[in-house]
Specification:
alpha+beta, diguanylate cyclase activity, 5-stranded antiparallel sheet, 25% strand, dCache_1
């Protein structure tokens, strides 16, 4: 039986934690590559030497930045000089940064902070204000003096596509927020950099608790549009972002009920076919038993028991309607000599052949039975003349038949009439 309590337990204890682990692993693996590349750029001796030598040959640094962009397929690569303020991109000099330019606030805020790197979502002014995830790394000389900021940029759409793929794959809503709860990446672009979870229905009431989450996942639940939503949160320290995974309880219950009903349906169908097959097998087995009970195993004709029952029926019918019937008793002459001379297998073949010859010379409505070892009987509804002719026809057929070179004659023992 599907209950809400069992579904809730399954989601919170198994489904959400497992989904979180899978997404966390896949996402961090995807995002660590640009982070590591930016880190290696910040410690690259070529870049440090080029800056220390006065930024003389601009083409060298442009080739360097473009080479990294092409190698790793990033959206952009850049270096901002702390000495000249020049913003170098992979495809040329973009501008000279200024504290008066709102697009350059990120640079001055970051260089003023006591942290080695930073990840932010912003529009790329040099690329038509495309929303971009920038990984910014500080570059220092050997004496610890700031030389500038370098890094790479990924299109937000690229990461959003990953998040959307997770949504499709795991059937859950996945998104990322910064330390303040502002949504950085979401399957729906309208939320990115514009909405904070603190301002959203339901989840806004537990935002403070969510933002207290550390590297270990925590589970929450809240109400949205009169529906219960389960949430698991985890802080990704490498990016300083929170990974949030939501699961609508109603959708899970609906799916669970459908699966339960489907399982019951297919179970009933399977049970029906099992019963049907079993009954069919039993009926076939019963029919075989009934056939064996009234059939002579060697010749395939009726046995003595079957003939006796049929004879009783004929007697009863005669007592009511006076419909005549006859019983012909036959014996194979010289059959013992066949057995003694050629063996029992040869004798069995003779009995089978004789039974077949008799069947070919009686009517389909007549009953042929093996009465004893080499004795046969035919029960039929005919007048006296017809019976005598039939008996003679059978005797002549056997006398003329090729029975493997064995001389066997049929002797009519008795013809009984009522």
């Amino acid at each position: 039986m599907i209950t809400r309590a069992s579904v809730r337990t399954e989601i919170l204890q198994n489904d959400l934690p497992l989904t979180m682990d899978n997404i966390y692993s896949e996402l961090t693996s995807e995002m660590m590559r640009p982070l590591l590349v930016s880190s290696s750029m910040a410690t690259d001796h070529f870049l440090k030497n080029w800056v220390s030598e006065g930024e003389q040959d601009v083409d060298k640094v442009l080739m360097y930045l473009n080479g990294i962009k092409e190698k790793y397929d990033f959206f952009t690569t850049f270096f901002v000089s702390a000495h000249t303020g020049i913003y170098y991109r992979y495809n040329g000099i973009h501008k000279t940064v200024s504290p008066m330019d709102s697009h350059d606030v990120w640079y001055y805020d970051f260089t003023a902070q006591n942290q080695e790197y930073d990840i932010e979502v912003d529009t790329d002014e040099a690329a038509g204000n495309i929303l971009t995830i920038f990984i910014n790394y500080k570059v220092f000389d050997s004496e610890g003096k700031l030389l500038g900021v370098t890094g790479v940029g990924l299109k937000v759409d690229h990461v959003s596509e990953l998040i959307a793929a997770y949504k499709q794959k795991y059937q859950r809503v996945v998104y990322l927020t910064d330390r303040e709860g502002k949504i950085m990446v979401h399957p729906e672009k309208k939320y990115i950099e514009k909405v904070s979870i603190g301002d959203m229905e339901g989840i806004g009431k537990i935002t403070e608790k969510i933002l207290e989450t550390g590297n270990d996942p925590r589970n929450f639940e809240f109400e949205r549009d009169h529906r219960t939503v389960f949430l698991t949160a985890r802080f990704i320290s490498s990016f300083s972002w929170f990974l949030l995974v939501e699961q609508d309880e109603g959708k899970v219950l609906s799916t669970a009920r459908r699966n339960f009903i489907r399982s019951i349906f297919f179970g009933l169908v399977a049970s029906f076919f099992v019963v049907l097959i079993t009954l069919g097998a039993i009926n076939r087995y019963q029919e075989e038993l009934e056939t064996l009970a009234v059939t002579d195993e060697l010749t395939g004709v009726a046995n003595r028991r079957s003939l006796e029952k049929e004879f009783e029926n004929k007697v009863y019918s005669y007592s009511r309607s006076k419909k005549p019937f006859s019983l012909i008793l036959m014996d194979l002459d010289n059959f013992k000599n066949v057995n003694d001379t050629n063996g029992h297998l040869a004798g069995d073949n003779v009995l089978r052949n004789v039974a077949q010859l008799i069947k070919e010379n009686i009517r389909p409505t007549d009953t042929l039975a093996r009465w004893g070892g080499d004795e046969f009987a035919v029960l039929c509804c005919q007048e006296t003349d017809g019976i005598l002719k039939m008996a003679e026809r059978i005797r002549q057929a056997i006398r003329m038949a090729d029975l493997g070179g064995r001389a066997v004659n049929l002797m009519i023992l008795k013809i009984l009439l009522p």
